[in-house]
Amino acid sequence: MLIIRHREVAGLLNGHEKEVIDLVADAYQRHDEGRTSLPHSVFLRFPDRPRDRIIGLPGYLGASTDSRADGSSDEVAGMKWISSFPGNVEAGTERASAAILLNSLKNGHPEALIEGSLISAQRTAASAALGARLLLGARKPSGVTLIGTGVINREILRFLAVEQPELSGLAVYDQDLKRAKRFTAQNARLLPNAKVRHCTSLKEALGAHDLISFATTAGTPYTDLETCSPSTVVLHISLRDLTVPAVLASHNVVDDPGHVLRERTSLHLAEEETGRHDFIDASIGALLRGTARLTPDPGRPLVYSPFGLGVLDLALARYVRDTARRGGIGTLIDGFLPTSAPH
Questions:
Q1: Which candidate, 127, 174, 195, 178, places its Cα nearest to that of 155?
Q2: By C-alpha distance, which of 253, 245, 179 is closest to 217?
Q3: What is one GO cellular-component annotation here (predicted)?
Q4: CA 101 to CA 137: how far, in whole Å?
Q5: CB–CB of 304/280 below 8 Å?
Q6: What distance in Å separates the CA atoms of residue 306 and residue 27, rounded to the nearest whole number?
Q7: Alpha helix locations (H) across the chain?
Q8: How far is CA 27 from CA 1, 75, 288, in A?
Q9: What is the dihedral of CA 135, 136, 138, 141, to 10 degrees?
Q10: Do domains 2-119+310-332 and 137-305 have the same CATH topology?
Q11: SS3 assignment, position 137
């Protein structure tokens, strides 16, 4: 068993944002082509602690059509087990923690255990940056507004700085203004030429720029998009911020309808209220492959709501594992499995 710790994962991923975005785009395309197996995520909740949860994301990402130089396959199978305990933030620790287990496709044996919080955050951020690229098209946004100032929006800002380096404005809104200012003090360097603005209300934040990223811990919808500028692109990463009317008034792109229309997401609530889901315009995999097109109405918001597919985590975990093996990084544990079958 190969154990890869957080600092080792960070060393292998940091500075490789473009490669991570390419890995995520490739995983989306394979999923759209039907070369994945992706059961629904399993949500473990606690009766007396409704804010806390642990999610299991099993999956299989099939091999690419292009052969690898060394003749090996790039298929991968495994599971991410990720917790979200929002109270951790108040205690000074990270909200989310995760582990990813990869299994051999020759014999099913577990072969790598990888600390997964950074992989999870970066695959989410890469997905957001990819969504922004597709929904913006040739448009150049004036800047970006971040709703929520946690780890996810920090990584989204990092990846947007690579995808949209011309961004000239950064607006930030958090219910805790001190936290928002601490966030910009630590992370505004990612967009060194952007003018920073701390918004004192959500309404102000929504009207600040035509590219918005929601990454909050909201459990129920609380806002519309009426104060946004026309044709704003909304990265609805936390999935439960927008009201049903806001969803229905927007163009909606998702990663997988069968996954996002559950677990009380804003889109799930819209489906329950209307009895239909034709408000979803396209999936990101189909847009990437060119099998779907998005022709937005002028003035209508464009909302990207990715549920978060486990195959993205597996694609990055495979990259981390393979790179670690080549570089002799990580800790090999002998004797983790039985050495022989019982008689």
A1: 127
A2: 179
A3: cytoplasm
A4: 36
A5: no
A6: 13
A7: 6-13, 17-32, 87-90, 117-136, 151-163, 177-187, 202-206, 244-248, 257-260, 266-274, 284-289, 310-327
A8: 25, 11, 11
A9: 180
A10: no
A11: coil
Domain positions in the chain are: 2-119+310-332, 137-305
CATH superfamily entry for domain 2-119+310-332: ornithine cyclodeaminase, domain 1 (3.30.1780.10)
3-state secondary structure of 204: helix
Would you tell me the crossing angle of helices 117-136 and 151-163 to the nearest 10 degrees?
Answer: 50
Cβ atoms < 10 Å from Cβ of 220: 10
Partners of 262 in beta bridges = none
Backbone angles phi, psi at 171, to 5 degrees: -110, 140
Per-residue tokens: 289: 């492959």
Output the tens digit of pLDDT for each of the chain's 343 residues. Answer: 999 999 999 999 999 999 999 999 999 999 999 999 999 989 999 999 988 999 999 999 999 876 555 656 899 999 999 998 988 888 888 888 999 999 999 999 999 999 999 999 999 999 999 999 999 999 999 899 999 999 999 999 999 999 999 999 999 999 999 999 999 999 999 999 999 999 999 999 999 999 999 999 899 999 999 999 989 999 999 999 999 999 999 999 999 999 999 999 999 999 999 999 999 999 999 999 999 999 999 889 999 999 999 999 999 999 999 999 999 999 999 988 887 766 6
Which neighbouring-strand residues pair with 302? 233, 251
Angstrom distance (rounded) from CA 248 to CA 242: 10
Nearest to 171 by CA among 163, 160, 291: 160
Domain 137-305 -> CATH class = alpha beta
Encoded tokens for 281: 């315009």
CB 145 within 8 A of CB 212: yes
Q: 273-308 burial string, b = 16+ CB within 10 Å, else e?
A: eeeebebbbbbbbbbbeeeeeeeeeeeebbbbbbbb
